[in-house]
Amino acid sequence: MSSKKAHQELLKKYAEAVVKVGLNIREGQRLIITYSVSRGVSFHAAPFVREVAKAAYAAGARYVDVIWGDEEMLRLRAENAPRDSFTEYPSWQINGIMNMIENGDALLSIACINPDLLNGLDTEFIGGMQKVHLQNYSPISMAVSRNAINWCVVASSHPEWAQKIFPELTPAKAEEKLWDAIFETTRSTQPDPVAAWQEHIQNLKKRSKYLQDKNYSALQYKAPGTDLTLGLPRGHKWISAQALAENGVVFTANMPTEETFTLPDRHRAEGVVAATFPLSYGGSLIEDFSLTFENGRIVKVHAKKNEAILQKLVDTDEGSSRLGEVALVPASSPIAKRGHLFYSTLFDENASCHIAIGRAYRFTLIGGEELTEEEFVSAGGNTSLNHVDFMIGSPQMDIDGIKEDGTREPVMRQGEWAFDT
Ligand code: ZN
Ligand code: ZN
């Protein structure tokens, strides 16, 4: 096979896995494909988008639509638009997507972006634009965070993104290498990707069952620059890979996914945590940073690069100064094994233990979907416009599980699981 033909074959297998395992499209469902409204899906993803559409129709989809976007438009807006115009927002896109969510349709988000797109531009304007985006986007993020429908986030290669990861390669080689990484970590290179995914999902489920049965009251993290104790609220639920949506579809929200996660108690975080990977947020890269917690609240941030953007993120709203997710990933995960950063949360969060600033997923608390906002918050759940994962794991990290009576057990040692299932 020519390499072009081989690439097309893999793209097809990848698209099928996304449709069958990620979204698990049902007969007669409609599908909307986008990437975070106001951005849309990059044209660079077009060959992949078309394969997804073919696979979706083959699986019985009734209608597939895409919201395309041109990221250069975003950059030139940040450069040229009037400084007081950051409140402008394409609310018609929100209405369109909400219409599909209310109809029980499926939602696919394709990350295909230049992580440095907005680097060096007016941080006030970009911060304002990001906040307006989060406010307008909140009906969708709320629907997604309670799994109203089957949804999935995946990636497609992008020239500048690939060049950022592999600066030593030619642009064409870099893009090819990023595609290799995407295909391998999403199991698209396996003879039967769908079967490989079913097996992987079963293995992850065993980890979450073990942690669920333990029902720890807190986790303590120790690593260079990190000594953090996170409370886990009563009724916390460990989740991995699959979820059941309100529309009755069992789906896998992220491809790749290697994490086992739950929610921390928004009031119980003490100590300091050092990030082990840079964080790509709203088009900027925050590097070498740490956060200090008291009573669950971030009381101090420090970053060698883009500290102001990090501070803005934490100041977005009350919930952005607290945590909403705690996720465990062994340091030997297939994504970590690739030995490089992806500058994309979708991949980097699956290379490392991570926690998230902001909103907790309702489904990580037993019965959480049925609670009012006040009830969810008083049970320890966090609410916020943001949900931003950042990486804290490393081969130097030890994690203890602490039971309600104070006894401790090893959960991870030197970045690896400390228990068998
Ligand atoms: Zn996560
Ligand atoms: Zn997350």
Which keywords apply here?
421 residues, Thermophilic metalloprotease-like, 12 helices, 22 strands, 34% helix, globular, binds zinc ion
Which term fits the overall shape? Answer: globular
Overall tally of domains: 2
The CATH level-2 architecture of the largest domain is identified as 3-Layer(aba) Sandwich
First and last CA, distance: 41 Å
Q: Would you count the extended β strands for me? A: 22
Strand percentage: 15-25%
- The computed structural class is alpha+beta
The number of helices is: 12
What oligomeric state is this?
Answer: single chain
**Briefly, what CATH class of the largest domain?**
Alpha Beta
Instruction: Report low-confidence residues grouped into runs of 5 or more.
Output: none
Q: Share of helix among residues?
A: 25-40%
The CATH topology of the largest domain is what? Answer: Thermophilic metalloprotease-like
Largest sheet: 9 strands, antiparallel
> What is the name of the CATH superfamily of the largest domain?
Thermophilic metalloprotease (M29)
Question: pLDDT average, as an integer?
Answer: 95
Ligands bound to this protein structure: zinc ion
